[in-house]
Amino acid sequence: MCGAPPGRCPTLSRLGRVSTDPGPDESAIRRAGLINGFSAYLLWGVMPLLFAAAAPTGALELVSHRVIWSLVFCALLLVFTGGYARTWQILRSPRTFGLLLLASVLIAINWTTFIYGVETNQLVEISLGYYLNPLLSIGLGVVFLGEKLRPLQWTAVGFGLLAVIVVGVSLGRIPYLAFTVALSFGLYGLVKNKVGSRVGALEGMTVESLVLAVPSAIYLIVLGSLGLQTFSGLGGWHVFVIIITGPATAIPLILFSAAARRIPLSWVGMLQYLTPTLQFILGVTVLGELMSTPRWIGFFIIWIAVILLCTDLVRTSRRRP
Questions:
Q1: Is 78 in contact with 206 (CB distance < 8 Å)?
Q2: pLDDT band at 197, cuts 50/70/90?
Q3: Which residues pair with 304 in a beta bridge?
Q4: Cα 298 to Cα 148, 163, 245, distances in angstroms
Q5: Of the candidates 180, 135, 186, which has an alpha carbon nearest to the alpha carbon of residue 305?
Q6: What φ, ψ does residue 134 adopt, rounded to 5°?
Q7: Out of 78-87, 90-99, 104-113, 270-279, which region has the weakest mean confidence (pLDDT)?
Q8: What is the three-class DSSP state of 18?
Q9: Which is it for the CA torsion 86, 90, 93, 95, positive or negative?
Q10: Is the peptide bond before 56 cis (omega within 30 degrees of 0)?
Q11: Residues 134, 244: contact at Cβ < 8 Å?
């Protein structure tokens, strides 16, 4: 039961939009945003398995294919949703297009770093970056969007920062992969929040893929001319894995975009802990990365922070009518 009169309860569409008969209320919108966000981070959490299966394709080649096949997938979805007119309006708006141009650069940096980490057996460090990213997202929400944090949230942030320091020290070097992942995706979330409801999730993803498609296509053409491409030389299964990176990339980003437009950025930061937890588990159990005692201590502290954030979210939800 949603608490609204019969026939007026909001529902989720396939692309993460909220539809109502006739108008949504704020709690329904935020509930939809939470569902979108949870689904996005769950998919991102298991994404390393797909990239590991794409070996020996290099990071830049795989990112380029992700862009091309994401654009193809989004273009097909636009046919069924009638979104081409809305996409054209985005391209004609200098401010909105400029924000999405910036978002596309940030997400390309994130993708490349992520895949490089998986291919070089550094998924645990990548997971550290995604643990750091929610803290950064919370900070960005406070500084740039004026969001307010409660005492329990501040306590969780403190535990999270301590955990990041402990894990970073255990690496014996600056965790550059972790910081690159955290900063690029944190800023990406901020830019998408600034775009707001002016751009639909699917249309925004289409424009971002379109922006990156030209340099991606050029890179793949050059790679092929040098005889270094791996797309067509490793069998049908490899071709399938490469192609499936398109929808596997677009779907969680569409869900994330829908979530970022419906819930506070600090909430987005809390949900993001699901992704690094899954990545950490995969790194240790599936990819066989070694864990030192300091790393275990650091991740244990991080999990305490996650529990604190979840506790605060549950308490807040219960206080709302």
A1: yes
A2: low
A3: none
A4: 27, 4, 32
A5: 135
A6: -60, -35
A7: 270-279
A8: strand
A9: positive
A10: yes
A11: no
**Measured in whole angstroms, how far is the alpha carbon of residue 174 from the centre of its chain?**
23
Structure tokens at 285: 């159990």
Q: Which two tokens stand for residue 34?
A: 């939470």
Cα gap 197→224, rounded to integer Å: 40
Under 8 Å between Cβ of 279 and 48:
yes
Give CA–CA dist 56/104, Å, rounded: 25
Q: DSSP assignment, residue 12? A: E
3-class state of residue 140 by DSSP: helix
- Which of 96, 72, 89, 98 has its CA nearest to residue 216? 72
Residue 279 has pLDDT above 80, yes or no: yes
Tell me the two tokens of residue 32: 């939809």
Residue 280 pLDDT greater than 70, yes or no: yes
What φ, ψ does residue 18 adopt, rounded to 5°?
-100, 125
97 and 191 Cβ atoms separated by less than 8 Å? no
Cα 223 to the chain's mean position, in Å? 28
Place 115 in a pLDDT band, splitting at 50, 70 and 90: very high
Q: Where are the domains of the chain?
A: 37-319
Helix (H), strand (E) at residue 62: helix 59-81
Over range 277-286, report the average pLDDT: 90
Higher pLDDT residue, 72 or 15?
Answer: 72
Directed axis angle between helix 293-319 and helix 274-285, to 10°?
150
In Å, what is the CA distance from 255 to each residue of 9, 160, 205, 320?
A: 21, 26, 10, 25
Length of the chain: 321
